Amino acid sequence: MGSVFRSEEMCLVQLFLQSGSAYDCISELGEMGLVEFRDLNPSVNSFQRRFVSEIKRCEEMERILGYLLREIRKANIAVPEDDEICPVAPPPKHVLEIMEQLQRLEVELSEVARNKEKLQRNLLELTEYTHMLRITRTFVHSRSRNKALGPQYEEFQSIESDSAGCTGMQRLGAKLGFVSGLIHRVKVEAFERMLWRVCKGYTILSYAELGESLADLDTGEISTNVVFLISFWGDQIGQKVQKICDCYHCHLYPHPENDEERADVMDSLRTRIQDLNNVLHRTEEYLRQVLQKASESAFTWVVQVKKMKAIYHILNLCSFDVTNKCLIAEVWCPVNDLTNLRGALEEGSRKGDATVPSFVNRIPSNDTPPTLLRTNKFTSGFQSIVEAYGVGDYREVSPAPYTIITFPFLFAVMFGDLGHGMVMACFALWMVLTEKSHKRKRSDNEIWTMFFEGRYIILMMGLFSVYTGLIYNDCFSKSLNIFGSGWSVRAMFTDQQWTNETLQTNTLLILDPNVSGVFVGPYPFGIDPIWNMAVNRLSFLNSYKMKMSVIIGVMHMSFGVVLSVFNHLHFKQRFNIYLLFLPELLFLLCLFGYLVFMIIYKWLAFGARDSRLAPSILIHFINMFLMQGGDNTPLYPGQTGLQVFLVVVALLCVPVLLIGKPVYLYWLHRGGKSLRLRRGYERVRRVSEDDMSQAPAYADDEEEGFDDLMTSRDTQPKEVKTATVHTSHINI
Amino acid sequence: MSLCPELSFNVDHGYLEGLVRGLKAGILTRSDYHNLAQCDTLEDMKLHLQSTDYGSLLTAGNEDLTVSLIDHRLKENILTEFRCLRAHSLAPLSTFLDYITYSYMIDNVVMLITGALKQRDVAELLPRCHPLGMFDQMAAVGIARTPAELYCAILVDTPLALFFQDAVSEANLDAMGAEIMRNKLYKAYLEAFYKFCQESGGATKNIMCPVLEFEADRRAFIITVNSFGTDLSGGERSALYPSCGRLYPEGLRLLARAEDYEQVKAVADYYPDYKLIFDEPEAGSSRTLEDRFFEREVQLNTLAFLEQFHLGVFYSYIKLKEQEARNIVWIAECVTQRQKSKINNYIPIF
């Protein structure tokens, strides 16, 4: 049997890698994806392994690359990703070069970025300052206009007239102070409240919202700010005000003494902002250049570093032979690929300039090898459906190839519409034809990826749906009349069964196939389109589809059971055939196989003429279990006798299924007197010819595992039975 | 609906409970701690933590790896998770989560006050506050001279204002006063939280009440033990004991009368759970009383995950995560100071 039907034959292989060329060998093996490595030092902690420092270096590089990519993305530069060029892992001597390059880039980038941020911060401060000056001027002026007082002490004067008692403060020589700055819009209310509470009202706060929003450099959020001006007396209150401002993260700027100073400051600010903008622009230009250059090779670096890290992780799995200066790796390799493996090792040794070639040593093993099922882009979808139910054991029969037909077909039996099937097939076909460009896009959309991964399954399902749709004669739920119906209404009139009067008096008319010429013959392919007009269309189609489902279902299940024979034969467990396979099959065929027989028999035995006599199969089937002939007329002579026989056989299968295998195994390892038992022992010994001591160990295991075995065997047939009964119930 | 809150629990909090249980699965296990304790450098620890749920927590950024950085990152991690939970939470749960933050807020306020008394700069103190208890008005705490001023001017807008009923006094704040204020606030907080949990009823009550009772009793014990040698009298002390614990009222009265450690131990002997904690540890173990209280707390908190449809998991998760951060920092400290003998004094959680 080829590898399509069973998982690939594997063998345990020891690789002796020269420490000098081990890296290249592993790299070569990794590119080919030939082998699975076993961990030879499972007891060693991950940070105590041999190549930890190399892995750390790779991680450092990954970190720098992550930073680099983030910056590139921030600058909106596309990273060219090309699947065609797949860079191999760099040789160890080039790693330092890449590392150096990366570090240089990082230093350069972070310096430029830091400069840029500093400039931006500066710029933000300056803009805030100008805004503040602009707005506080309006405060001052509005007040001075109200009171029409001189410009020097306008605030002071206005406050004096506002609140009595402050004249005393003035007399004491308390100095009038100003604090002005910007605060977040959301915090203003709390800020004002606390200010009032702490300073007991000895402050005056005026604020106005800033027209435009400024970005916060720390969080990157854009927020609206409010400009405020606090006037207060005295140093103590001044300190408190200062503290409160600190606690609300206000941006404070010095408040100018008079209008001239304000104008001066505004002027100087304007020129500084202009300069800063220039510098900032140039910095950004330079940053972009650096990033542009880095983005060209970023993708290659990412792949290379990833591969390198993977190689060191694999090298960590190997054990180190001090005397021979070589690494020993244990791998699982498909037997067919051993020559490729040798070739890859030679290639690796050549690249690594090793004096002694690395070599391969096949070692015997009693462990169960991993299951390898090769897939291509067509079968991988079906394989993953099978794997959703469970991965088969090593060398077990793989159900995937049969699934390629059965899965889409069973889907189509349920879907069964020509039109919809066509739409589906076209969609899938489009995906299949354009798969290369889709693969390159690498979409993140989960639902799309799911469809795309299953494109071949969808295609098959669509095609099968077209087929079943033709059989059901269903196209967008309408029938197609391609070949011309086999029924004729005209014949009813020519035969004088119907007249115009019948048409007028009856709402429902029944075509009688017994009248000659009404039913010419079956429709060449699928269901006759005349059923589309019939009132009992649904009940007819349902009955038909259900019977078809029962037949297909029973066939499908029997096929599955038959497949298990190949496993039993391959694993040389002949008793499984007698104790599991045969009773299962008998059970299935005696009950449900017989049902299928009855369905087909009824189709064949009853024609249009005696269709009124046709019995209900369901009643017959139920009576079969009750073992009553009842008042039903038998379908054929000897029906009751056959049915009783079948039920008895099926019932006899149940205890065999339940306890057959455990009892046999128990007997096998307890007794030793009977002939069959000897054979059992011989078989055990033949399995482990190379190691005689394995035989008793095997027996010991059996003893301990007996209870487990019993329970596991118990449940399996039950599942089979309930499953069969259940499915047929649904079908019926 | 109110008869059986479990029935409608999932409508509002099902997602978050699932989330928190998922997060709980990422709490380090004994084998993780075992591996961490074998590390020789912080780099090794980083490498090992990478294989846990922390992932690249310590890898990001290129600062030098120090214990304080680890501590900072772990706290930040808890904060991010907590913020996510808080942002998605609905009515009873959001209040419950707020209650969790109040205890950290109390600690922060008291720390800032004591810092201000020692003339420390607020900017220097702020980074040392627990991020879970951060609030806007915090930095202004240093302005206040008396608890009354503190309450009226600064904290009246914050949720802590509720707990100030007993703590308002005109006496000047000093180190001792701050400490007393902390305990008074804490007492009010615990009692309020306890009441809230009791009113929630159902499994929340069953889970949270023992945890809070334990918390209250622990505070009572610790206050008593710490007050020996200070001029705090028994009467003053008893005003600080939270009254929602299992010691209330009989045990608290006895504690108020206690004058040395032996007498405290005698009080604990009446209660089987606390007897275990106060019993002399077997020779060779260097666990302090505090450690044993933490151990018991971890035990109680892990119990919360055995029941479903209650708010206790959120509290327990945050507390366990905090304990985990303490453990990791402890191990990191031991690693940097080469104190291998003490490295196993962490408190394993699962």
UniProtKB/TrEMBL annotation, chain A:
Residues 713-732 are annotated as: Disordered. Its main location: membrane. One of its GO terms (biological process) is vacuolar acidification. It is a multi-pass membrane protein. One of its GO terms (cellular component) is plasma membrane. Keywords: Coiled coil, Hydrogen ion transport, Ion transport, Membrane, Transmembrane, Transmembrane helix, Transport. Residues 95-129, 266-293 form a coiled coil. It is found in: Membrane. Pfam families: V_ATPase_I. The chain crosses the membrane at residues 409-433, 454-472, 548-571, 577-601, 642-668. GO terms for molecular function: ATPase binding; proton-transporting ATPase activity, rotational mechanism. Essential component of the vacuolar proton pump (V-ATPase), a multimeric enzyme that catalyzes the translocation of protons across the membranes. Required for assembly and activity of the V-ATPase. PANTHER family: V-TYPE PROTON ATPASE SUBUNIT A, VACUOLAR PROTON ATPASES. Belongs to the V-ATPase 116 kDa subunit family. This is V-type proton ATPase subunit a.
Automatic annotation (TrEMBL), chain B:
The keyword Transport applies. InterPro entries: ATPase_csu/dsu_sf, ATPase_V0-cplx_csu/dsu, ATPase_V0-cplx_dsu, V-type_ATPase_csu/dsu, V-type_ATPase_csu/dsu_dom_3. GO terms for cellular component: endosome; proton-transporting V-type ATPase, V0 domain. Coiled coil: none annotated. Gene3D superfamilies: ATP synthase (C/AC39) subunit, domain 3, V-type ATP synthase subunit C domain. It holds the Pfam family vATP-synt_AC39. GO terms for molecular function: proton-transporting ATPase activity, rotational mechanism. Keywords: Hydrogen ion transport, Ion transport, Transport. It comes from the Eukaryota. V-ATPase is a heteromultimeric enzyme made up of two complexes: the ATP-hydrolytic V1 complex and the proton translocation V0 complex. The V1 complex consists of three catalytic AB heterodimers that form a heterohexamer, three peripheral stalks each consisting of EG heterodimers, one central rotor including subunits D and F, and the regulatory subunits C and H. The proton translocation complex V0 consists of the proton transport subunit a, a ring of proteolipid subunits c9c'', rotary subunit d, subunits e and f, and the accessory subunits ATP6AP1/Ac45 and ATP6AP2/PRR. Belongs to the V-ATPase V0D/AC39 subunit family. Subunit of the V0 complex of vacuolar(H+)-ATPase (V-ATPase), a multisubunit enzyme composed of a peripheral complex (V1) that hydrolyzes ATP and a membrane integral complex (V0) that translocates protons. V-ATPase is responsible for acidifying and maintaining the pH of intracellular compartments and in some cell types, is targeted to the plasma membrane, where it is responsible for acidifying the extracellular environment. May play a role in coupling of proton transport and ATP hydrolysis. Regulator of osteoclast fusion and bone formation. This is V-type proton ATPase subunit. It comes from Salvelinus namaycush.
